[in-house]
Amino acid sequence: MPAPQTYQFKNLVQSDGSVLSPAFVTVQQGRFTRVASTAETTPITDYKNATALPGFTNAHCHLELTALGPLPEQRFVPWIIELVRQKHKLANNNMQAGIIKGCRELLRSGVVRVFDHISPETPATVFENLPLKVRGFVEILGSHKERSLKSWQQGKEFCASAPLPSHLTLHSGHTVHPDVKNAFIKEQNRLLSIHLAECESENELVQTQQGEFAEFILKTNPEITKAELSNGSSALQILWEQNAFSNSLIVHGNHLSDNDIKLIAKHKDLCVVHCPNSYAFFDHGGFDFERLQQEGIPVALGTDGLVSNTELNMLGEIQSFLKTHPKTDLATLMPMITLNAAKALGLADEGDVKESYKADLVLMHNTENLEPLQLLKQKNQVDQVMLNGQWVI
Ligand SMILES: [Zn+2]
Predict the structure, then answer these.
(1) Is the pLDDT at 231 greater than 70, yes or no?
(2) Given 329, 344, 359, which residue is the final one in a domain?
(3) What's the CA-to-centroid distance between 312 and ligand 1, angstroms?
(4) What global pTM score does this model have?
């Protein structure tokens, strides 16, 4: 067994925002074995000028689209049309180079794990040899029945051969043929990570079968009936009635109704993922963080893909969020960038610097002795990253 390594830090910020100062952290075989404010063993590697934090979780991304971004179009439905057009032309080697580039950028901003949405037709090989931990959510997609059935089959094949942990999910509530959506939910019983209530026209579609989004879907598949599009009072409730929401990430949730929020609050294993810069890119509006907080609903931050962002930088997302929610304290912010999304997915030993947890952490040089929140507001890169007990930056 390799010898344990002990590190001393100026301070350590835990996932609940509490700060240990000074901090001595021992790592062995890729896990933390001791976290304390006093040393027990020697030798000790000295990082006395650095603040340590748990490695960040990017709760939502589309790494495969990195090579295409950012797209100049910022209106939501025209953006989708342009994205589909561009993606058809993207060669696998360029896609793979984009994925690696995106991962490296995220790593430099302190991300150690990414919850990533993947198209089922993407070859699994483009995800080989990634520099950080990526968990794939392979999207069933297509308003034509045959198309969505095909993507389900392709998704199964991707998951069976993928070099990363992967799960099947629906792209969203409305972009999968209703029969296929129902059959999938019946079979898998969990959605895990799904785009929901991103834009206002998604609810308009459900409630009135009109608006930009409804027109787009009906145009894509004229065989779909308006009745099939709308059999509930909100995008969330249609799926909710099928009991598919345990241990899941609800991505965006910008336009959740009051009733939606009350339903989500009943389950303690759900998490709403907010992507601050993508939200600003589309000028979506509607995200009510305070309301989610009031109901005790966990929120996590994500970058979304570079196609609807200007960079893949978790510190940039944190800073955007703090600008729009300036009263946020460290205790509120920390679980949003470390633990909340991992916990919702049932990953019990990731996202914190605690004994027996996987040894992932980031260091920020802090010779000026800044408060941790100030540090997160000022830096656009971290200085070192430990992944499974190894320094990778
Ligand atoms: Zn997305």
Answers:
(1) no
(2) 344
(3) 13
(4) 0.96
